[in-house]
Design goal:
about 240 residues, alpha/beta, 9 strands, Rossmann fold
Length: about 240
C-alpha cells in the first residue's frame, strides 16, 4: 500500500485526463465492449486507482463502487467524481455487500495484490450468482522480464528477455516517478485459481494496439503487454 501511496502523485500525472498508452490504445475498447455485452447494473472496480474506469462506466449509467488501498488515489477519484462510491481498502480485506454486484473488474490490478487467493475470495464473494468477473492483466511473460521492457544490444536486434517464468515472486517496477511492487505469477497460477473457484471462462484475448504513435504501436504488437479474461460465476 505504501508504495502506491508514495507513487500516487506520479501516477495521477501519468494518467492525465485521458489515460496512458496501454489503456487508451489497447485495453479500453475491448474492455468496454465486454462490459456493454454483460450490461451490468452494479459494478465493483477492485484496484480502481484514481477512478478512471469507474467514471467511464458511470457515463454508461452503471452504478460503480471503486476500491483502492491508496488514500491519495481514492481522494483524486472522489474529487473527479463526487457522486461516486469510492472506498479505501485492500482487496484482501475489503468489506462490500456479499453478492451485491453483477460484475467485478480488475483492470491491471491483480498484479498489485500480494495475496491472490485472499483477494479472489473477497472479489468472488461480492459477485452475485450468475455474475461476471472481468480481468485485464499484464501478461506473465511481461512480469517475468529480466529488464523493464526491451533490451537493446550493441549489435543485433532488440530483444525482450525473460527468466524464472514459473517462479512466483514480487517484482519492483519503476518508471516516470512511480516505484511499486508488482507480483509475477505464471499464467497457470491465475487460471488454476479461477478454475478452482468453479468459474467458467467466457472470453480470452491478447489485444493488439490499434492507435497511438506508429513506432510505439508496432513495438507493442511485437510483444503485447496485456491479456483480457472474462469469467462467469455459476448461478
Amino acid at each position: 500500500m505504501s508504495d502506491w501511496e508514495d507513487s500516487a502523485a506520479a501516477w495521477i500525472a501519468i494518467q492525465g485526463e485521458s489515460g496512458d498508452f496501454g489503456r487508451v490504445h489497447v485495453l479500453d475498447t475491448p474492455m468496454l465492449a465486454l462490459v456493454d455485452a454483460i450490461a451490468p447494473a452494479r459494478v465493483l472496480d477492485v484496484g480502481c486507482g484514481e477512478g478512471r474506469f469507474c467514471r467511464m462506466l458511470g457515463a454508461r449509467g452503471m452504478a460503480t463502487t471503486g476500491i483502492d488501498p491508496a488514500v491519495t488515489l481514492i481522494g483524486q477519484a472522489q474529487a473527479l467524481h463526487p457522486d461516486g462510491d469510492y472506498r479505501v481498502a485492500d482487496a484482501e480485506t475489503m468489506v462490500v455487500e456479499p453478492g451485491g454486484y453483477d460484475l467485478a473488474v480488475c483492470y491491471l490490478s491483480l498484479i498489485d495484490m500480494p495475496d491472490l487467493d485472499a483477494a479472489l475470495d473477497r472479489i468472488l464473494a461480492a459477485i452475485r450468482p450468475g455474475g461476471h468477473l472481468l480481468i485485464a492483466n499484464l501478461t506473465s511473460f511481461n512480469t517475468a522480464a529480466v529488464h523493464l521492457g526491451w533490451l537493446k544490444p550493441l549489435v543485433g536486434e532488440p530483444s525482450f528477455p525473460i527468466d524464472h517464468y514459473l517462479e512466483e515472486r514480487p517484482r519492483r517496477t519503476a518508471w516516470q516517478g512511480v516505484d511499486i511492487i508488482n507480483h509475477h505469477r505464471p499464467l497457470k497460477r491465475y487460471m488454476q485459481a479461477l478454475l478452482g473457484h468453479g468459474l467458467v471462462l467466457t472470453h480470452f484475448d491478447e489485444p493488439p494496439a490499434t492507435g497511438g504513435p506508429p513506432d510505439k504501436r508496432d513495438r507493442y504488437n511485437r510483444v503485447p503487454n496485456f491479456h483480457i479474461m472474462a469469467w462467469r460465476k455459476p448461478a
